[in-house]
Amino acid sequence: MLSVGVNGYGTIGKRVADAVVAQPDMELVGVAKTRPNFEAERAVENGYPLYAAIEERAARFAEAGIDLAGMVEELVEAADVMVDATPSGIGAENKSLYESHGTPALYQGGEDADLVDTSFNARANFADAVGADHVRVVSCNTTGLSRLVAPLEEEYGIEKVRATLVRRGGDPAQSGRGPINDVLPDPRTIPSHHGPDVQTVFPDLAIDTLGLKVPATLMHTHSVNVSLDGDATAAEVRELLENQSRMFVIPEHLDIDGAGKLKELALDAGRPRGDLWENCIWGESVSVEGDDLYLFQAIHQESDVVPENVDAIRAVAGAADADESIQTTNDALGMGL
Ligand code: NAD
């Protein structure tokens, strides 16, 4: 059993903790939080040993009636692999903590790529992370694009990717974020930073991305154009994508017109928190004009990186190869809609 600790128990951290618990070959040794709140209380209710991330604030947990298992240093010492799911930039500050205990660590997409030995997407470059000490699981948008690029690159070769990312203003619980009544080019400069982030996984890929932010919280939507090297038909591409394990090509007859119905489907299907771990690609949008492939995909920002974190744990521990790990993760989570 791989012993896994999670430092930072928010949107990503709590999902990764639950996903670790679901794995047949992993044990959650605990989670670390900075302050007591509803998530801290839930962690204890779930039976997850809770550690204080900041010693000076540890007393606040006792004041709130929440029992601690100890300080984060003890968690790091006990773990074979740490998953850092703290806010952007804090992971970099925590790196020395993991190093001082000789514990390999995963970081999230909010950290800089140069913090780590390799950036990670299970479908694209699992092997690069095998045995690494510091690995970054790329962001939700980069994960969504990487999953799409990998099979297209293998099957046809890619001349260039152009993608417009229509991004949710904030997650549902982020009540302070916006916009609330606007559509923002974000960043206003073109291309956006997302393309270079995809190149941390595919160094030789030609890709330009444009970003916007909109008053939505449920999911991101990508409008994608891929200029392919090889000949393809829309039907062939659709079949290729349907055969990828973390892609849900939405059949027309489901009559799903946007992220609202997608989330409803996930809730109806009993998905934890209504999570959609897969890229959700509208089947009827998959089109080929000459060498150009076009499609729309929705990306659930809160959860698509969760199975990737689970695979990255096995990669750094050298516990499985890519196919084995992806299959185990998918089976344990109940992937597929
Ligand atoms: P979040 O704010 O929901 O959760 C972060 C948690 O870490 C909070 O509970 C916070 O209290 C805690 N924390 C703060 N400082 C800490 C410290 N020093 N030690 C331990 N815990 C600390 O953030 P999130 O959305 O889960 O994002 C975490 C990382 O995942 C970021 O790098 C982010 O860019 C990335 N990410 C987020 C999303 C998303 O849409 N939410 C998607 C993909 C990747």
What keywords describe this structure?
binds nicotinamide-adenine-dinucleotide; 16 strands; 8-stranded mixed beta sheet; 337 residues; 24% strand; 8-stranded parallel beta sheet; single chain; globular; alpha/beta
Your description of this structure?
This protein is of the alpha/beta class. Helices cover 33% and strands 24% of the residues. The chain has 12 helices and 16 strands. An 8-stranded parallel beta sheet has the order 4-3-2-1-5-6-8-7, with helices on both faces. Helix 5 (90-100) links the parallel strand 5 (81-84) and strand 6 (105-107). It starts with a strand and ends with a helix. Residues 7-13, 32-34, 53, 85-88, 90, 108-111, 139-140, 171, 301-302, 305 line the site of nicotinamide-adenine-dinucleotide.
Secondary structure: elements and pairs:
Blueprint: E1 2-7, H1 11-22, E2 26-33, H2 38-45, E3 50-52, H3 59-63, E4 70-71, H4 72-78, E5 81-84, H5 90-100, E6 105-107, E7 118-120, H6 122-125, E8 134-137, H7 140-155, E9 158-168, E10 184-185, H8 194-198, E11 207-214, E12 220-228, H9 234-242, E13 247-250, H10 259-268, E14 279-282, E15 287-289, E16 292-299, H11 306-317, H12 322-333
Helix pairs in contact: 1-11, 11-12
The structure holds nicotinamide-adenine-dinucleotide.
